[in-house]
Amino acid sequence: MTTASVFRVFIITAVLSLVGNWLGFNINPIAALPGMIILLILVALGYWLSRVSPIKLPSIAYISALAIIASIPGVPGANLVAEYVGRVEFLSLTTPVLAYTGISIGKDLDAFRRQGPKIVVIALLTFLGTFVGSALIAQVVLKLTGAI
Amino acid sequence: MRSEWKVHLLALGMVIIAESIGTIRFQLGPGTVLLLPMLYALVIGMFLPSLRLVNNEDMETASPLIGFAVMFLTAKMGTSIGPNLSSIFKAGPALILQEFGNLGTIFFALPVAVLLLRMGREAVGACFSISREGSLAIVADLYGLDSAEGRGVMGAYITGTLFGAIFNGLMSGFLVNTGLFHPIPLAMACGTGSASMMAAALGPVVAAYPEMTTELTAYAASSQLLSNVDGLYMSLFLGIPITEWLYRVFKGKPVANEPHPAHD
Questions:
Q1: How close is the nearest chain A Cα to the Cα of B14, in Å?
Q2: Testing the interface with A: which of B12, B16, B38 to mutate, by most A Cβ within 10 A?
Q3: Which of A90, B17, B56, B201 is the most buried (most CB within 10 A)?
Q4: Considering only A2-6, A46-50, B126-130, B252-256, which range has the smallest mean pLDDT?
Q5: Which chain B residues are closer than 8 Å to A112 by Cβ?
Q6: Are B159 and B184 contacting, i.e. CB atoms less than 8 angstroms apart?
Q7: pLDDT band at residue B77 under the 50/70/90 scheme
Q8: What values do phi and psi take at B171, rounded to 5?
């Protein structure tokens, strides 16, 4: 995709999210617009950086880093970022993702049906693994440092 | 080009329907089942081919768009990290080191997935993390969400959204009752990166040690915060490479399908 068409997709996604934010959370699109523009800038800048930077990292690494820096208290404008982006609900950003996924999923539906039950089992195992892994390490470290 | 506008318009319609229905929640056993608008959007999408509203070209057109939409999620998550960054420097060694326990999922789930269930590359997508939004973003970027890895992470994401809270509540209740763990490490383990899962997992721990409620809640919340801060980078730089390596070890042959940027 050309850079121009990628940026067009960014803008359309932002519009879809504003609509979702309005219908799902009753947040007026005008009120949410500044926050959405901030997100749009972070996304576009991060995407652009990942293309031109000599350090080859996925665009989300750049986007995330930029968003973190822009919101650290004390960084110029950070309070505005927090305030405006706060009016864009997280869940209203997930709905467009799953809408596009839903449209594209048709061609993978058979694969999904075959793998589905296995994936459910594995997903539950990952919850168990993460929980037990964290509890074990915390328990050992706290014992070693004499905290418990 | 025409296909792309059609896909955008369909997505807009799906967002409007899904968000108008809104979130539905109901109690099931120890936890709450959340039916979120994103789930309706997905289900509507599954019916589009049978309604002859999308063809193969539209499906192909929609695939790369997922990765771009996910970038907004990443940006939003990032802006909630900045204000909390200083909490990392205040956290003790136990709280920080237990974050690496989140990688325990790989050694736990991947052997079962590959050796027992004979899964393919779906296992890589499903096993490297607990498959929350950040993981979707990573897989979208590295493999594309319409790949086998994408099916893995997407399936696990939906599983977590539907059953994560219930499962975590049951699991934590069971582990508290074994008496193997001190309540503080258990509370730290509750913070895995999903707010609803944390709340569900913390419930039984607090119920068993009511006199420590404030302390335990604080540990869980700090751990949750840390997971949100480090999750994406932990998965990107440790989780995925370890999973890829272990997958190769189990399969005993080089992987044909190397990661490639989705937007190439």
A1: 6
A2: B38
A3: B201
A4: B252-256
A5: 151, 155
A6: no
A7: confident
A8: -65, -45
Q: Which residues contact A100 (CB under 8 A, 6 or more apart)?
A: B7, B11, B62, B63, B65, B66, B69
Please classify residue B34 by burial: count the beta carbons closer than 10 Å to its beta carbon, then call 0-12 exposed, 13-18 middle and 19+ buried.
middle
pLDDT tens digit sequence for B82-106 = 887 776 666 678 888 888 888 888 9
From B245, B129, B141, B65, select the one nearest A56 (Cα to Cα). B141
Residue B41 to residue B46: CA distance in whole angstroms? 9
Each domain of chain A, given as residue ranges in start order, spans: 3-88
Q: What is the pLDDT of residue B263?
A: 46
Q: What is the token pair recorded at A127?
A: 């919850």
Residue B58 three-state SS: helix
Joined together, the tokens standing for residue B36 give: 């979120």
Tokens of B220: 């869980």
Which sign, positive or negative, has the C-alpha torsion B4, B5, B6, B11?
Answer: positive
As for the ipTM of the complex, it is 0.90
Residue B78 token pair: 């990032």
CA distance B70 to A64: 12
